[in-house]
Amino acid sequence: MRVERSGKALAKITAYRLRTMCLPTRTRSARRQARPVAIAFVLALSALAVTAGVAVAGHDAFAPVDAPIKRYSAIVTAIGAADKDGHVHSFTTSNSDFRLGELRSWRLTFVSGELFGNSYQVAENDASIVTLTEDNGPIDGVSVGDLFLLEQVFSRKTPAPAPRPQ
Question: pTM for the complete prediction?
Fold first, then answer.
């Protein structure tokens, strides 16, 4: 027959079991036999921890962690003038909080538009105009409204994307 117990009675029973460090049993003698086993188990674990050495955790010299990477997202609001070859390498952004030269050598990746997924390296910037290097080719396919992501990560030189037929 099962006896229904109130929440208060169950809390008292649980507290007693935690105090005595024994498994739930039905008889008092079984609880007395289980107590030394539980104590021996705890002592064995602590001895194992002492002989095995100290575990290193956290952010220190033994567990180096890279500094957080700064990231900005913005929208192209205007396209810059073409160079003498007719290629575009600069544009105006929706974000006007950049300091002069702050983004130099950062990676710029387009996340929408015709240049989706293409990465470039920033050559220079001012408050809202970003100029890219010629290493990865021109950004002739960029249009107003394209989204891009700026990351404080050095961009590798990759071959320029193939020109798209007009």
Answer: 0.54
